[in-house]
Design a protein that fits this description.
13% strand; 3 strands; globular; Aspartate Aminotransferase, domain 2; 143 residues
């Protein structure tokens, strides 16, 4: 049943038959699922099975306006407070994408390897949308 519903929703937004997805019971679980997937994909070994063994700690760049669950999820994954790399927001509460390069460089100097940027679309507190295109360009540039 889940696959049928996912295919139906996918077709409504233009995806081909056979698209895939995951349902969760809420945004917090959805955020954790996405962050775990990013951690697994962007780690050169099976971090799920082997645990964190990198010299450079995996880090997540998040907006100062990110939902509370995003920072909490980093801690749930056992990565600690230092793996939460906050990005300031502009006067409209959107992530300051003009600072991504600088913040990434500072994080790397602290021994943190950025593996993901968590964008808000829209934030719970303000309803603001981060610039997803600029964030996607930054992520693509840095793999």
């Amino acid at each position: 049943m889940e696959r049928n519903v996912i295919n139906r929703f996918g077709s409504l937004i233009g995806y081909p038959t056979g698209c895939d997805g995951i349902f969760t019971h809420g945004g917090t679980a959805g955020n954790l699922t996405a962050m775990l997937a990013a951690r697994q994909v962007k780690t050169d070994y099976n971090i799920w099975e082997d645990g964190v063994k990198e010299i450079k700690r995996p880090g997540y760049m998040i907006s100062e306006q990110a939902h509370y669950s995003v920072g909490r999820n980093v801690k749930i994954m056992g990565l600690g407070e230092e793996s939460i790399v906050k990005v300031p927001v502009d006067r409209h509460f959107r992530m300051r994408t003009d600072l991504l390069e600088e913040i990434k460089t500072v994080a790397e100097k602290k021994g943190i390897r950025i593996i993901s940027v968590v964008a808000s679309s829209c934030s719970t507190a303000t309803g603001s949308y981060d610039d997803l295109e600029a964030i996607a360009d930054f992520c693509e540039k840095h793999d």
